[in-house]
């Protein structure tokens, strides 16, 4: 299993710009529920739908691939040509704000109602 729960203090230098979300990216569908670092889900959405360059929290010196893919998923194109742009991938990365918010609103380790034994 790839490492998760990486803080920005544990970030390591990147060898090159990655094209897929890192193992701990909040934008990846495999992200741990609620693991958002020091930002709220709403703040993350504000960054993604805005014009800010978002750096990867696990790798230094590169932009967040998850944000770039999410932006493509929601048809957001940053005005700055230096911002990372990657193709849409609705399988690996959330396809819309609702999915992102619902995923991160769940508490880790809790079963969904239809997963419980009755």
Blueprint of the fold:
Layout: E1 12-13, H1 41-49, E2 59-60, H2 65-73, H3 97-105
Parallel strand pairs: 1-2
Widest β-sheet, arrangement of strands: 1-2
The helix/strand series, from N terminus to C terminus, equals EHEHH
Rg over CA atoms, rounded to whole Å, is 14 Å
Mean of residue pLDDT values: 87
Shape: globular
Residue share in helix: 10-25%
Fraction in beta strands: under 5%
Alpha carbon gap, first and last residue: 31 Å
Key traits:
118 residues, mainly alpha
Characterization of the model:
With 118 residues, the chain is mainly alpha-helical. It has one domain (13-106). It is built from three helices and two strands. The chain has a two-stranded parallel ribbon. It is globular. The chain starts with 11 loop residues before the first strand and ends in a 13-residue tail after the last helix.
Structure summary:
With 118 residues, the chain is mainly alpha-helical. The chain has helices spanning 41-49, 65-73, 97-105; strands at residues 12-13, 59-60.
